[in-house]
Design a protein that fits this description.
Elements lengths: L16 H21 L4 H29 L5 H22 L21 H24 L5
Amino acid sequence: MPNSPRHPRLHVVDLTAADGTAVKDFLEPRLREQMESQYGTPAFKTAFALDGMVRGAASRMEYHCKALAEDNFFNGRERLNSLHAVQDAWNTLWQAVFPWREEDGYDTTRWMHVEYIDPAAAEQGEEMKARVQAEVEAELQAKGGSR
């Protein structure tokens, strides 16, 4: 593993509509350039499709971040559904912007995959991964092999 500085983990509860807008605003000129200069080509069609996906994901983030800020949910399930919608929209945006990670303006401290809702979920998830890994290793040792 390279010795690169590790950024603090980002959770769904850390995300805002502004994060989605920032990714959209970063990608928009890059996608528009392809659409304007290569109309009708496969590059145009690819940029056009990605532009629609980015705009849709940013819009979903804005909607659900607003709902979470207002916190007027009927129950915890509705709130959790909204958190998962933010996570799905964000990870779509991250997937769209990731290929530009080495360009100026790419926010390496914010634009990362988000796996967990909050720090407590992250801790539980990492503990579960460690238990599963230990079980796999124990099974391999019991069979007399190793990976």
